[in-house]
Amino acid sequence: MKKVERAHSRPGIRYGVAAIALCAGVVGAPIQGTAWADSPGSGSTSGAAAHAGPADTRSATPGPSRRAARHQASPTDSADAKDSADTQEGAEPDHRKTRGADADAPTDEPSDTTGPGTDVAEADVSQPRQTTAGERIRPKLFVVERNSTTTRDDAASRGGSVRDSSTAGRVEVPRGRAAAAHDSAAVATRAPAARSLTIDVPTSHREPVAPSADTQVDAVAPAVTAVSGPTAVETPLSPQPLSPLAKLLQLPGHLVNTVLQVFDITRSSHGPKAPIKLAPPINNLLFAAFREVERWAGLDRTPPPQPPIPTLTYTGPTTAQTPTVAQFLNASASAYGLGTTPAGLNPFVVNGFQMSSVNILTGMAAKAWVTPDQQIIIAYQGTTGGTNLLFNPFIAVTQILTDLQVIFTQSTPWAFNDALRFAARVQTAAAEQGYGTDDIFVTGHSLGGWEAAYVAQQIGLAGIGFETPGMNTTVPGNGADSMFVNIETYGDPAPFMATDLPGLQPFMPPYVPGGGSKPHYGSIVMIGDPAAMTPLLNAVTLWGEGPIRNLIFIADFLGNFFQYHLPGVQAYHLDVVPDPGVVPWLGTARGPVDAGYGDLTIPQLLKAASDAGNLQRAAIAA
């Protein structure tokens, strides 16, 4: 992919310590605008009340199913329809063509409260962690290339593969419909053992594969395990329409969002345009002044040298069908907008309501969407909830507390467990409509990306997290064999609040290549201008040198956080037209653009970033 150079700017915005400023400035961050969790008829014990805006009745009519095409072309599929209903649509969808409706999700299952205000049913915790077909198919597709100056060589000392080869803690379970024989999937060879490491990674999602009798599954014992659900339907049902009641409940949110678009707080390809746009020039003036303050403080000088970061070379196939980068990003941004719908997506509807969940006591909010290719995206909401604060301001407090808990402790917040339970509910409901585990993906921005990464880590779903900090939890390999990708922007402090990316030490725990106490889960794709990190790299050297210098660091942290953190900045660098856009003018959209990245699937993104040298960090945590 070619990089298009534009005028440069510098650093990014923050995520953790600055969490409190996050609430104040995240007019553009989003929450689910209502303090509701479960739909009418649910057995939930949650105390939150359901509320949603009206649904947009324009729904995408999916074209010929990829599943149907592959079902006809593959003899193995027809011979084993119950176990392999995993065919896909042939044509690449235009993710900007149609828009779906937005509504609150019903749940017909009894709810189990395991945390404050929990509003979703908990799955059977006695089962071991299940893996997706992508994790079961394990050819060697990644090679980790370490810089020769790197001081750690744990990867080589571990004998190459990061996968735990022991049989302890494993149980045998029947293979799912997309499981495949290992020998038919081998694509690349193991790299030399000297300074490189071969990583096992799934070939794809939803590719036709040979059926097999059984497989092994890691018994990680997360708080909640994946739920397979019934599989009577051979192919997914078309997106279901919202009920009249669901549309009525969405009406207030849609009306408010229409007004917000007039004032350029939100944008949509189908909404009204702001007659006068005063905010963009004011935004640019403020950040230009901020840059001058940084120069006055000497933060524009050449920064201290940073340790090298291990890079990944992706050698796997790029034909797997997943949602595109633009669909993931728009679903993430939609979580910040009251009454907004991601471009080209439809709500995932159960019993007339979109599956969604909001828990103001833990700060978790999420909605499920369906792509034109009949794949489900679970989008988790980031800190402050954006324009949703108009209907549900209290959730910003609990989301900020969740941020602080993850950053400054080694514990897992209740919001992460809520996110896991919601994903389990979506899996169960999706299975009843003919979707398989490989048809379900997770995404989110900031705190939402954190929650998406946790769900991916615990039950093996693929997806993309935007501006995600490091995790407090790890599993064997920690995502080396996953298709979960973290897209991070240079200059934004949030991604560097981790131990596997250098830059915010000693404010954060020590940097450890590919690991440490707070590593990311999965691989990392860096976007933007590396020079944007210069002020932060200089400011962090002031940390611990006295109250005044600490304040200078915190002020620079917050300034860069708001300049580079919001989804509109990522949309610019990824060559995506944001739809919806929330506070689209806040931040600095300048510098290199990765042309065409928005239209890429996950494996295509891995390949493009690998070729550009921007695919970083081997997940080598034990």
Strand residue content = 5-15%
| Rounded mean pLDDT score | 73
Radius of gyration: 23 Å
3D shape: globular
The tally of helices reads 16
Number of strands: 20
| Number of domain units | 2
* End-to-end gap: 33 Å
Largest β sheet strand count, sense and barrel closure: 9 strands, mixed
Structural class: alpha+beta
Residue share in helix: 25-40%
**Low-confidence runs of at least 5 consecutive residues:** 4-140, 144-204, 206-232
Concise structural overview:
With 622 residues, this protein is of the alpha+beta class. Helices cover 26% and strands 13% of the residues.
For this entry, give a set of tags.
622 residues, alpha+beta, 2 domains, three-stranded antiparallel beta sheet, 16 helices, 26% helix, globular, AB_hydrolase_fold, Lipase (Class 3)
Question: What can you see in these coordinates?
Answer:
This protein has 622 residues and is α+β, with helices and mostly antiparallel strands. It has two domains: 3-44 and 246-616, no CATH class; 134-218, no CATH class. Helices cover 26% and strands 13% of the residues. The chain has helices at residues 19-25, 66-73, 75-79, 133-136, 154-157, 244-249, 251-262, 279-296, 325-334, 395-408, 414-432, 447-459, 534-539, 547-564, 567-573, 602-612, and strands spanning 3-4, 140-145, 170-174, 196-200, 214-218, 266-267, 311-314, 346-347, 349-350, 353-354, 356-359, 364-370, 376-380, 440-445, 462-466, 484-489, 523-527, 581-582, 593-594, 615-616. The strands form six sheets. Strands 8, 11, 12, 13, 14, 15, 16, 17 and 20 form a nine-stranded mixed sheet that branches. A three-stranded antiparallel sheet has the order 4-2-7. A two-stranded antiparallel sheet has the order 1-19. α1 (19-25) runs antiparallel to α10 (395-408) and α11 crosses α12. It is globular and about 60 Å long. The two termini are 33 Å apart. The model is unreliable at 4-140, 144-204 and 206-232 (pLDDT under 50). This is Lipase (Class 3).
